[in-house]
Design a protein that fits this description.
Four Helix Bundle (Hemerythrin (Met), subunit A); 7-stranded antiparallel β-sheet; single chain
Length: about 475
Amino acid sequence: MEIPHEVTPRRDTGLYNAKLGIWLFLASEVMLFGGLFSAYVFLRLGVRPGFDSPWPLGMNVHGDFVWLGFINTLVLIASSVGVVFAWVALKERKWRLYQIYMYFVIACAVVFMCIKLVEYNSKLNHHFGIKLKDNSVMEGALAEKGGDRIHFEGSKVSFSFTGALPGFLSDLVGDEFPVFIADPGPADEGPVELKSYREFAAWFHNNRRKVNADLASERKRYRSEAATGATPKPVSVNTAGSVSTKEGFAINGNPRKVVSHSEKSMNYRDGIKIEGKLLSDDVKYVVHQVDMQLVLPQKQRDSMVWEVIADDAAKQNFFAAQATQYQKLQAHYGGKPIPEGLLRGSMLNLHEIHGDDAHGGGHAGDHAEKEAGPASEVHVEHGDAAAEHGEHVISVPRDKIKFMSNHGPRYGNYYAIYFTMTALHGLHVIGGALVLLFFTVFGKKLYLKNPEHLANRVEVGGLFWHFVDLVWIFLFPIMYLF
């Protein structure tokens, strides 16, 4: 049975079935991305300078990656042109030419996603922000891999057999697994020596099965006693387990997993307690920028950030750069009052801190800031032997930190929306590319049977691809430029 209007258009709409369907689908996509764009606009317009977390400038956030975003824009535009040429080739019954154009489109999609992965890697692995307790902010990077970890020397670990395999195992330091002496668990007759991860996991799972069986038996007993009307004896099963070492073991606690720590213990969110000795909980950090937008102007000179950085030259140069930018604002407004947003904004309160190899550039701000000129960089003269390649390496005490994170979704509203929208757009790129690739690799049979049918399918795929391109054309300027 032949489905009507697969190739020929309908009389009432002038569209064939698939084309009508794709327009309805794209209407729902417009509502999806329209809601996200609207959320971005309203969140940004609602920011109050000096009170709310400042909304970062796209060009300041992405830096050199603005050019990569522009390249991605050109890549998607080129791919949209390629889809049109591929469709024309099918209309002219040129199968090989159609394949060439379509493979070009797929290659553009691969290039686009590779560039996005480079951007994501930079933000998630190479950029790190720290907000101190007085709301001053340092932007930069961890001085070493795991520089935000809590360095601890453990001697005993306590946990429960009712949960999953203890998460502290992934934080152990060194290639050799420490030799743990396990206290007798529910399934053990005596102490057990655990010399590898596999032995530890097997021992843990064996005791967990015994604990779960005992719990099931006790609950069954409790229900049967309660059914007789008598007061049942409470369920009582020992679910605790512990292991220890003679010489101690080194562990770098992940701050996202650790709920609290002291000089003698460290507690994980999953209930694990490690006893031992705290070695260091300072964060090894490389400072690139100092942001004082949330600190009152009269309190900036006594801010906690200068105590942490401990560099008088950095402090003096920061306020010298701030004074220079203030003079530019005064000249720009010609004696008129300077808007509060600018006085509390990034132009006066956000400056670069680099080593002696730093070069000019600064950062950009809003429209008035651009007209007045870019902010200055702060050049730090330091003699720290650990500061290699001209980078200013410091140790940030954890008790002075209010919040810290990489530049991922949890770092702020801007980053949450950026990752949501770009990742969702990336999924559309991958999905559209896979559909077009399917038509290219497996479309020959349909082409030989009914070339017009395949041309219609490619046209529908092309409409979706044009929509993906259009979303990026809106996404690039608001996320990368403004």
